Amino acid sequence: MSLKEIGNKLREERQRQGLSLEAMQQRSKIAPNILESIEEGRLETLPHPVYVKGFLKTYAKVLGLNPEDPELGLESAMEGVEPPRSKVRRHKPLTEVTPYPMQREQRRSNKAIILLVLLLLAAGGGYFIWRSLESAVPPEADNATSASNATEAAPAAGAALPAPKTAQQAPQLPAGINATSGTTTDEAAIDESVETIVNATQPGEEVASEVADIARNIESSQEDEADNATAAAEDESAETAASQEANATAGSADAKKNAMYQQALRSEPVVVHAPADGGGQSVQIMAMEPCWIGFTIDQDAPKDFYLYAGQRASLRFDKTLLLRLGNAGGVRFLYNDEPFPTSYRSGEVKELRFPPTPE
């Protein structure tokens, strides 16, 4: 059977099943142009016969046909078909290629490299010599500079040295006062002596400088204390603002949880489980946050479910109920229609047993 006959059979079966070429391509993963060539029997546009035979089997399997069915004739479809010859590109013989002067170009490149290396060496040597001459100083110039500095620093010969300052000069007594006994007969001389002593005992320049330094130190310490007080006040204000923001965030989260709890109380249970006899005890689970819940009732097989925020589950049992909570802080409970308080935090994984075990 020829490829064209097999292609007609496959196309008729595809059309009978109501499949388009695009749907066939998605199911068989064969390119549309290959499918068209198979159905029309165009060998010149198909690849090697080995690949074509594989495409035919895949096509038949997608249509629900048996590729081994002799009536379909897939086994004998490509017998005697020669594969297409590959086009070989012919090159010119080597005798027609013009030889390239390799050695001459290599010599030129070697000369250029040697010249470049010599230029770099010359430039480096010149730079080194220039730096050496610049940093070197003649000994005569150094000695002359030292002598000049010494001459400027030393005082002129015969110049009088300044008298050392004393913290307080002793006052000179005016004429008419006895230096030993301090007595005189001239009242004007006594007044002048007292004024001279008072003026002489006033603080000098050095004492005034020390007083000014002490005043500056006191002023600086006062400024530092003011800066520290300002920084402490700013830190306290920042801490207060952060605390208020944290409290506001916590309050907002608690308000959202309470709203979800009220919504869950008013909603119908999305999960209801009870034994055949109805069960004598009940646990209502209200989700304020998403939570995975696993449960075991009266030694039955474990089961689980998932609650989203605002949803409620109702579980009834006779003897015991074991809960496994993936987000224990995100749910609240009613045990036998009474609030069952817990102190779990969001994200904690806990187990809870009903009736609760007394501590």
From TrEMBL:
Residues 286-352 form the Cytoskeleton protein RodZ-like C-terminal domain. Gene3D superfamilies: lambda repressor-like DNA-binding domains. Residues 139-170, 220-255 are annotated as: Disordered. InterPro entries: Bact_Cytoskel_RodZ (IPR050400), Cro/C1-type_HTH (IPR001387), Lambda_DNA-bd_dom_sf (IPR010982), RodZ-like_C (IPR025194). GO terms for molecular function: DNA binding. The keyword Iron does not apply. This is Cytoskeleton protein RodZ-like C-terminal domain-containing protein. Residues 141-167, 239-250 have a biased composition (Low complexity). Residues 221-238 have a biased composition (Acidic residues). The chain crosses the membrane at residues 112-130. It comes from the Bacteria. Pfam families: HTH_25, RodZ_C. Keywords: Membrane, Transmembrane, Transmembrane helix. SUPFAM superfamilies: lambda repressor-like DNA-binding domains (SSF47413). CDD domains: HTH_XRE.
